[in-house]
Specification:
Number of helices of chain A: 11
Structural class of chain A: alpha/beta
CATH topology of the largest domain in chain A: Rossmann fold
Largest sheet of chain C: none
Oligomer: heterotrimer
Number of helices of chain C: 9
Strand order of the largest sheet of chain A: 3-2-1-4-5-6
Strand content of chain C: under 5%
Strand content of chain A: 5-15%
Chains: A alpha/beta, B mainly alpha, C mainly alpha
Shape of chain A: elongated
Number of strands of chain A: 6
């Protein structure tokens, strides 16, 4: 059998080897952290400052993510909840996705509101899942009590003390959205920000949606725009280390390996095009 | 007892996680099993949530206290929607879907005119009048050129508008789009890693209980 | 006559619902705080809530479609191995529906609440969360095989993509700040311009599609032709 040149080998690395190397590159930094510094970026600082500057007694609508994207939003959501519960603000949780209620249960198993002296119904409550996407957002903006006759457990809204003062969008100070769907993050702009531009809109999306959402941020329709990846920076800022800080090292490992593969692939392709067979 | 049930749950979750990931190596019966479990679980879960919502957002208006008798209408129309699967009475489904489509499409596109269209154009034009240092002014000019050329690329699609000297406009737009997609590719890479590292965290620290 | 109630009336309903929402947007003053202060606001709010309620019924279509598909597969399958997966799917679906009917918090009676939480946390969560997560491996393979400079435009995509991956890597964020400045500039100016152009074009298309749906030209949502 004629030997394969190094160029041929480099150009056709079996995918199983690629997958295994990437898996190891992600796992090792999680098990043995590299201890790299965690520089806090400007968007995370802005996110922190906006939540820190919410006036006492503000009502904040928190639209959390769906189950499919939960692993990405875990650190940002947990850190944000720690921050929100530590402030004298009231929270209304909402799920735009059917599986979102499972996310709410996971979040509350990681962040105990009682540790901050928060009581369900008085300081926070969950209105459940309303299907319909933008029509759900529109319904919440126009007449909160008609859109939400009961909370996610079926308790009538009239029996929830903090809901007594919520009539519509004008009673909310801020909207915090964690989503993997562009229709959701842009839908909030259409149905809430267009109606009431003064509302603070803190939008956390998957990093791959940042380029799509950036035009809205530059047009000042989004107050703060962050990706889900820098959750570790927020944990560092809050002094509440969690899964996000560990993720940073895994990103370094995986992305370095991907950069190496890109270089190898391009070198092999260029070499082949230039007709160099390499050493046999 | 609760600890044992939790531990069994963690092992089942780990098995299902590994089963789903196993497809990247090759299709196998373990993956097919997990895939069918996922489809069944997602469908069953959504159905249960939907029934709960129909109770919360519909039936509760009628029973046990009659808050709004008109809610009987959407409940009846909703049930009629399941005639979609009937051979001759399928058209009954159209009344419900007409309400949903009419409402949601209008709610979306009317606001879209302001949010996605006017505000974006206003922001792009106003950027030309903002003051700043040389890098900022250069960036603003680049932004406007990128916006106009990429808009031209998609809106003006007649072949004659892409030929001759006019053809330079969409070509420049394509270059800007390549730059944008290059940046976008990196963010996609980060997202995929972000999602998987979350699951890896579970496997290593909740299932295998490695020291943190 | 049958075309009237099969097709024309549903199209008219679509138009009327759209008109109510349009009137609500155009004629209701912005300072309205209660729906009863304006009839258009009241009808618009009611219609929106009805649409949200009907959307719940649409969720059930998924269960019906999957059931029909897999029932057909079970009947046509030749061996028990082929039938097994579809039967298993029905078992899991039935388990979630039964536990959900007696465990989902919004139900009338929830003796199976703990079981619902368990199924949600240990069966649905790992499956839903891992399906999208496993794409990282295809991404790695794509980086290696497809992310190669074959043309000048492809080279531009490659260079910007390579620098952007470095920008997103915490190691380079900490020790190579020039990458941050460069990619921040690219993300803030040319990328925003290009994406804005794409989104305005998409928005124009969506607006036109919405108008076409309202006036009855787009009828795909009505299902099969009569």
């Amino acid at each position: 059998m004629a030997g394969k040149s190094i160029i041929d080998v480099l150009e056709n690395i079996p995918r199983e080897i690629i997958y295994t190397i990437v898996l190891i590159a992600m796992a090792i930094p999680l098990i043995r952290p590299l201890g790299l510094p965690v520089p806090v970026s400007e968007p995370i600082r802005k996110w922190y400052n906006e939540i820190e500057s919410l006036p006492p007694g503000s009502i904040v609508l928190v639209s959390h993510c769906s189950l499919g994207s939960y692993p990405a939003f875990d650190s940002m959501q947990v850190a944000t909840l720690h921050h929100l519960f530590s402030r004298p603000v009231k929270l209304v949780f909402f799920s735009i996705d059917a599986t979102g209620l499972a996310v709410y249960d996971i979040l509350l198993s990681k962040v105990d509101p009682k540790a901050y002296g928060k009581v369900y119904g008085v300081d926070y409550f969950h209105i459940g899942f309303i299907p319909g996407g933008e029509t759900a957002m529109k319904a919440l903006a126009e007449d909160f009590k008609a859109a939400v006759p009961s909370d996610y457990k079926g308790t009538p809204i009239s029996q929830i003390p903090m809901a007594a003062n919520i009539r519509n969008i004008h009673d909310f100070t801020a909207l915090i959205c964690f989503t993997s769907a562009g229709e959701t993050s842009i839908g909030w702009i259409r149905q809430w920000i267009v109606v009431r531009p003064e509302i603070k809109y803190l939008c956390c999306v998957l990093d791959m949606m940042l380029p799509t959402m950036r035009p809205y941020y530059e047009a000042k329709q989004v107050t703060v725009l962050v990706g889900s990846a820098p959750g570790g920076e927020y944990e560092f800022l809050l002094g509440k280390p969690g899964s996000g800080i560990k993720k940073a090292d895994a990103f370094t490992g995986a992305q370095l390996i991907l950069l190496v593969f890109i270089i190898i692939g391009n070198i092999a392709a260029i070499a082949k095009r230039m007709g160099k067979g390499g050493v046999r | 007892m609760a600890d044992i049930i939790t531990e069994i749950g963690i092992w089942i979750a780990a098995f299902l996680t590994i089963a789903i990931v196993s497809v990247v190596y090759r299709d196998n019966p373990i993956f097919k099993f997990a895939e069918h479990t996922y489809v069944g679980a997602a469908a069953g879960y959504s159905f249960a949530v939907a029934i709960g919502n129909i109770r919360g957002y519909g039936i509760d208006y009628l029973y046990p206290t009659l808050k709004d008798p008109w809610y009987i209408l959407p409940l009846i129309i909703g049930v009629l929607m399941y005639f979609r699967y009937h051979r001759t009475l399928y058209w009954l489904f159209r009344y419900g879907i007409a309400i949903v489509v009419g409402t949601s499409v209008t709610a979306a596109f009317v606001r879209s005119i302001e949010a996605d269209f006017l505000t974006q154009i206003r922001s792009t034009i106003s950027i030309l009048f903002t003051k700043g240092d040389a890098i900022t002014i250069l960036g603003n000019v680049v932004l406007v050129v990128a916006f106009i050329t990429s808009l031209y690329y998609f809106i003006f699609t007649f072949p004659s508008l892409h030929a001759g000297s006019l053809g330079y406009i969409p070509r420049i737009g394509r270059w800007f789009m390549m730059i944008a997609f290059g940046y976008s590719f990196a963010t996609t890479v980060v997202t995929r890693i972000d999602l998987f590292v979350g699951r890896l965290n579970f496997l290593l620290f909740e299932w295998l209980k490695l020291p943190t | 006559m049958s075309v009237l109630y099969r097709r024309h009336i549903p199209l008219a309903i679509t138009f009327i619902c759209g008109l109510i929402i349009l009137l609500q947007f155009s004629l209701v003053p912005a300072k309205i705080t209660e729906p009863w202060q304006s009839p258009f606001q009241y009808y618009g709010v009611t219609l929106t809530n009805w649409a949200n309620l009907l959307a719940n019924f649409i969720i059930g279509f998924g269960v019906v479609n999957i059931s029909l598909l897999h029932a057909r597969r079970i009947m046509r399958a030749k061996s028990w191995v082929d039938k097994f997966y579809s039967i298993w799917l029905f078992i899991v679906m039935a388990a979630f529906i039964v536990v959900g009917l007696f465990g989902y918090p919004r139900m009338w009676w929830t003796p199976l609440a703990a079981n619902w939480d368990w199924l949600q946390l240990y069966v649905l969560t790992p499956l839903d969360a891992t399906v999208y997560a496993s794409l990282v491996f295809y991404m790695a393979s794509g980086c290696y095989r497809a992310f190669r400079a074959r043309t000048l435009e492809g080279a531009a995509l490659l260079v910007v993509g390579f620098l952007s991956i470095m920008y997103k890597t915490p190691l380079f964020q900490a020790y190579a700040p020039w990458i941050i400045k460069t990619i921040d500039w690219i993300a803030e100016y040319p990328a925003v311009g290009a994406y804005r152009g794409i989104q305005v074009s998409a928005a124009l298309g969506a607006i036109l599609l919405g108008i076409r749906t309202l006036i009855g030209v787009e009828t795909g949502y009505l299902g099969r032709r009569d």
